[in-house]
Amino acid sequence: MISLKGVPASKGCALATAMKIDIVEEFSENLMITFDEKVDEEEKLKSAIELLKSILETKIQKLTSENRAEDAKYLIVQKYLLNNRILEEWAYEFIEYEYAAVSAVCRAIRKQVEFIKTLGNENIEKRIPDIIEVGKRLMYLLSGLNYPDISHIEKDVILIANDIPTNIMRLADHDHVKGVVLKKGTTKSHTVLLSVDMEIPCIISCTDVLDKINDGDIIFIDGEKGIVNAQLNSMDKINVLARLENHVKEKEYIREFAHMPTITKDGKEIKLFSNVIDVNTSARYREVGADGIGLFRTDFLYTDYDKLPEEDFQFDTYKLIAERNNNNIFIIRTMDTGNDKSLTSLNLEPEKNPFLGYRAIRISLSRPDILLTQTRAILRASAYGNVKILYPLISNVEDIKGALEILNQAKEELRKENIPFNENIETGIVIEVPSAAIMVSALIKYVDFIAISANSLTQYVLAVDRLNPVVAHRFKSLEPSLLKIISSVNDTAKSCGKLCYIYGELATHKENIYIYMGLGINIFSINPTNILPIRKFINSINYEDAKRDAKKALMCDSVTEVENIVKKINK
């Protein structure tokens, strides 16, 4: 048996056929042909266009028959753009200049996008991503490659790739995609977050997967341990099938906790909020009985499109979720992205260490137009629900003052325009960098609540990139230094009468949540798929035990000592 190791990104396990996906990052604009080859290239382009029309129509009908109209609309737009023939005509023009068909399409896309931008028509500009997508599909066909389309698959598969773009993952066939293994990827990528939301086990940073796994291999993946197994013998398969059977039984059993309160055996009530990554996944949190939305990640509005999101588009997004939310808490985090994610709309320069660079609130404050647009949209949505604003990567008082100045500017503009909003909308900051944790007593004067990002705080305090296999073993969430910081931040918030909660993937680990509870944290915001297992766990423990063990943990000198304290909860 071959066993590979990666970084766990989405829990669960799966046994299925490996399906390798080849992603072409960029097609050449400069492939030339001779005069005599022009007719052949024109015929090749014509055939590719007709084939693509047929492919799109088949997929549209398939998605429509499966009541996936929201997914089908992207393809309907692309088919319309093909029928419009503008891209086609410009591509033929470039073939006349003796460019190969694939390069002609590449140049035609660029020319059409540039032309649209000169029109100054926002409605037409919205079609730019679809034009680019149609062009990519044509270029794959012209290059003799299979477009990485996973919207309709005939058998159960585990996707194997270097990385998978969000636009491809969004259309994944939920019935047949059983797992994802990526050579690259990050736990914050939209593709990984989609995997979590769709309850698809996912492993990232599996460096050998493309070399060691062949297309068509039967493989088993464990998304909790980050393990990929191939070339299974008879005994391996028996063990794997037993594991899968237990996994299915556990999922069925856990659904019983959907409508239960979250309360410890000795009567301590805990609130479980949900993280939400986009509109399509916003309904999931209600199915598991979450108490509200503790983190709405707005990053997809900036990373999934080639232009910055307009105010009305953002407002419609936030308003829709606010209205669905039945006046429960709905916390919207402002843009929290940088060069670690696909962000073409800002044309950011490459950085050696984007997590320490130009990102999140730093972009928003240096480009106040971006934050003002988003703030206006959030304020407008606050008239339709219990909306709050959360600012990420705050590292000093100047950061939060700058954000609040823009908030006040947005309020003044909306008043003058007679647009309704919640005048008393609450604001919060994310504690994720050490400077903010140290200065929390100063920062908290300016806001109404505190959110601790468990993952980011661990990374910054310990100076460990957990996706770096050389140092990943140092990423220890129970380090006494971290626990002291979390305890101090929470105590400060409580002394000021302000809410403090924790969000992030680390808050889904039983031993972590046990200690966090003991430190006095009684609100957690986690992915919807983790809410039921965590509710089940919390309902099985005593709060007083957690308090006693957390007090012991704060007195420990090493993470090993803390880990020994919490060993009992996994037995």
SSE topology sketch:
Elements: E1 2-5, E2 7-10, E3 13-21, H1 38-65, H2 69-84, H3 86-96, H4 101-119, H5 122-125, H6 128-142, E4 157-161, H7 166-169, E5 177-182, H8 190-197, E6 202-204, H9 209-212, E7 218-222, E8 227-230, H10 234-254, E9 271-276, H11 284-287, E10 292-297, H12 300-303, H13 311-324, E11 329-333, H14 361-366, H15 368-381, E12 386-391, H16 397-416, E13 426-431, H17 434-438, H18 440-443, E14 449-453, H19 454-462, H20 480-495, E15 499-503, H21 510-518, E16 523-526, H22 528-538, H23 543-554, H24 559-566
Parallel strand pairs: 3-4, 4-5, 5-6, 9-10, 9-16, 10-11, 11-12, 12-13, 13-14, 14-15, 15-16
Antiparallel strand pairs: 1-8, 2-6, 3-7, 7-8
Helix pairs in contact: 1-2, 1-3, 1-6, 2-6, 3-4, 4-6, 13-15, 15-16, 21-23, 23-24
Give structural notes:
There is one protein chain. The chain is of the alpha/beta class and 571 residues long. The chain folds into three domains: 2-21 and 149-253, Phosphohistidine domain (Glucose Oxidase, domain 1), CATH 3.50.30; 35-142, PtsI, HPr-binding domain (Enzyme I, Chain A, domain 2, Orthogonal Bundle); 268-570, Alpha-Beta Barrel (TIM Barrel). It is 47% helix and 15% strand. It has 24 helices and 16 strands. It has helices at residues 38-65, 69-84, 86-96, 101-119, 122-125, 128-142, 166-169, 190-197, 209-212, 234-254, 284-287, 300-303, 311-324, 361-366, 368-381, 397-416, 434-438, 440-443, 454-462, 480-495, 510-518, 528-538, 543-554, 559-566; strands at residues 2-5, 7-10, 13-21, 157-161, 177-182, 202-204, 218-222, 227-230, 271-276, 292-297, 329-333, 386-391, 426-431, 449-453, 499-503, 523-526. An eight-stranded mixed beta sheet has the order 1-8-7-3-4-5-6-2. Strands 9-10-11-12-13-14-15-16 form an eight-stranded parallel beta barrel, surrounded by five helices. Strand 9 (271-276), helix 11 (284-287) and strand 10 (292-297) form a beta-alpha-beta unit. Helix 2 (69-84) crosses helix 6 (128-142) and helix 23 (543-554) runs antiparallel to helix 24. It is globular. The mean pLDDT is 89.
